[in-house]
Design goal:
With 191 residues, the chain is α/β, with parallel strands linked by helices. It has a domain of 115 residues: Trna Endonuclease, Chain: A, domain 1. 51% of the residues lie in helices and 26% in strands. It has a six-stranded mixed beta sheet, with helices on both faces. The longest helix has 72 residues. The N and C termini lie far apart (103 Å).
């Protein structure tokens, strides 16, 4: 049986159609593998983010533990005769909440300290907002002079300068000890 040109063309067209089907199948398989890989990558990124969040929280706790024993000394050196340190204070009142890392107090003064591993401008702004709530949500300190402080393992110079301009004490590490980075003539804002 002899093949005609038309038969040859139909044979070629069937081959091309089969090749297209095979290519589409391979493409769909490759696309599915890529989607599966993307999903796996997303799961891994979420897991890494959770781990980083936990590590950041642990580093923040480390800063709290480093600042707590030095807090009384640091503020007494600045003429605030504090004698008590409270840690991890959580207040809920009238639908609002407030969390304080460290509160250093005496009968007339309260210094609210926010501790971070890597202090940022956002952290400073969040703390300023927190300080606005203290007397309202913790009325037992209504008659106290409330001031604020931020502490960190890493404090960029611009962040420290901003916090100081906003009236906050800045507690940072200097070698093997903690110090207030505010100069001797600094006057803290009182809330």
């Amino acid at each position: 049986m002899t093949t005609t040109v038309a038969d040859d063309i139909w044979a070629i067209l069937r081959e091309v159609a089969q090749t297209q089907k095979d290519s589409q199948k391979e493409f769909k398989e490759a696309q599915k593998e890529l989607q599966d890989a993307q999903k796996q990558t997303e799961r891994e990124i979420k897991a890494v983010n959770v781990s980083i969040g936990r590590l950041s929280n642990r580093l923040g706790e480390f800063v709290e533990e480093a600042v707590r024993p030095s807090a009384v000394r640091l503020f007494r050196e600045r003429g605030i005769d504090v004698h008590e340190v409270q840690q991890n204070i959580i207040v809920k009142r009238d639908g609002e909440g407030l969390e304080i890392d460290l509160l250093v107090i005496n009968d007339k003064d309260a210094v609210v300290i926010e501790c971070k591993s890597n202090l940022s401008l956002d952290d400073v702004n969040d703390h300023l907002t927190r300080l606005e709530k203290v007397k309202r949500l913790m009325p037992r300190y209504k008659e106290c002079r409330v001031s604020g402080a931020v502490a960190g393992m890493v404090i960029p110079d611009n962040v420290a300068a901003y916090a100081i301009r906003k009236g906050l004490y800045v507690i940072g590490q200097n070698g093997d000890h903690l110090e207030l980075r505010n100069d001797a003539v600094f006057v803290a804002k009182v809330w």
